[in-house]
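Hi U.,

Before I forget, here's the chain from the pilot set. I'm dumping it here mostly so it's searchable later in email.
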Amino acid sequence: MIEALRGWTPAQRHVVAASFLGWTLDAFDFFLLVFVLKDVAAEFNATVATVAVALTLTLGLRPVGAFLFGRLADRYGRRPVLMLDVALYSAFAFATAFSPNLMVFFVLRALFGIAMGGEWGIGASLTMESVPVRSRGFVSGLLQSGYPCGYLLASIVFAVLYPYIGWRGMFMVGVIPALLILYIRRHVPESPGWDRAHAATATTFSMLRKHWKLALYAIVLMTAFNFFSHGTQDLYPTFMQVQRGFSHATVSTIAIFYNIGAIAGGITFGILSQRLGRRRTIVITALLSLLAVPLWAFSPNAVLLGVGAFVMQFFVQGCWGVIPAHLNEISPAEARGTFPGTVYQLGNFIASSNAPLQVMIAGSFGGRYSIALALVAMAAALVIAVLIGFSREAKEIDLNARAL
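Structure:
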């Protein structure tokens, strides 16, 4: 890790910090909802399954944001579009707190999903185009660890503030990411991999026509990855609350614990991917996650369940920690602002059925969320291990080279 950090310029440090914080705070706003599904359902006289549709809407509309903001970033630069995106997802998260009914709540979470979808692709391309080649593995793991960091922050807010501010107050806290805009404006330069003259020559249709096979493969791969992450995260608090009957304090403690594991896993395996290669690291982590399933989903007490959750997220986010680097390295140079985020979020769109699917599976097994969690996690891990064999290793590619 020391070698990966050596020789960075101040501008490179600011770029990494801004992209990490952007994804962290984006995820923070998203995960606020998973802790208050029951509260929102009670407020609007609905079932948990009905309110879980909001998760589906958010995930399902993220590809729209990834494409729209990605094209803007390829056309007008990464930096200004990133600031616009942060402003919008912060505003929609804050507005959620004032929802007068369930329909307005759904609309606002859908709009939040569009804004949320734009951040990852822009931040990842800005970062990977800015840092040294030798640092990509570490930075990839660090960037992706922003996702569990956001979940961790949401867990802490739930543990500390929820008893005092309720579910609406938690969404009001979601306006905090807007402060990041000031930091980006003052400290973050434009990506060296973006060129105004070259941007004007690239079109969406030419990119898709030339790279449709790669795009299709990447969408399928990211579908499996998103079932892997959301299938092990989104309904886990509900599983602990509803099936296991754990208290507010126990749920928040375990959530904090497993998000620490997720952060550690993302950074650890991101670094290892620089030595072992992206493909090999992904296969190893996906298969190792299978060993954690019994402890994670079927442990007899809260302590063992917490240990299992830590280990599971260590490998799940360890697998994910390679993705920012890998997707950018295999992306077409002329559409790096659009391609990684769009295929990632299209995978999210397909996997957006995860929450209702797991609720349905749990219902068919007498309300046993443990079985639903285990089935989705194991299936996703195996599919990832198989699919990654069709990818290519490109960890030494020059991300600032112009497309021919």
